[in-house]
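During the no-cost extension, the postdoctoral fellow (Dr. R.K.) reprocessed legacy sequence entries with the updated structure-token encoder. One reprocessed record is reproduced below for audit purposes.
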Amino acid sequence: MVCFLLGTGFEEAEALVPVDLLRRADIPVCLAGVDGSAISGAHGITVSADRPVSDVKREELELVVLPGGLGGVAAIRSSAEAMDLIRWAHEHGVRLAAICAAPTILSDLGYLDGKQAVCYPSMLDKLTTAHTTHGQSVVEDGSIITANAAGSAFEFGFKLIEALRGAEAANKVSRAIYFHR
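Re-encoded structure tokens follow.
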């Protein structure tokens, strides 16, 4: 199962585009509410969480995704349960993915130390111990995938599918929606 951590102010495209693509690939997805069950995004789109973060079934996790959006990132940072889930996932070999401002959370935890990573361009200096990659929208290094912004939401979603189910699964969804990669 893939768990998306949604806090008030999350960037809608960075969450909903990858969620849609993953579900098209028949990958189970859970929208975990960090601060409630009805989560308002940065642009006023409200999403119903499938469950609170505290009810995420950790033993089923394949991947934990952190969408960006400054409010959403702040909500994740201020949630002891969300931060505990991220730490647990990392300690148990569950893949992590973050986009836009959210890779800063992984950097602060030390999970990007020495890894290739990207984030929102104006925040690259906050990835202090990562090897930031310029000119790439999405980067996979080991069990961590990072992406730079809402404009890379499709590429990010396809990379998540590829990491979990292989390139052919990602290509199948790409062909089905007539997305040219």
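Helices lie at 12-24, 70-78, 80-91, 103-108, 153-165, 167-176. The radius of gyration is 15 Å. The remaining legacy entries will be reprocessed before the final report is submitted.
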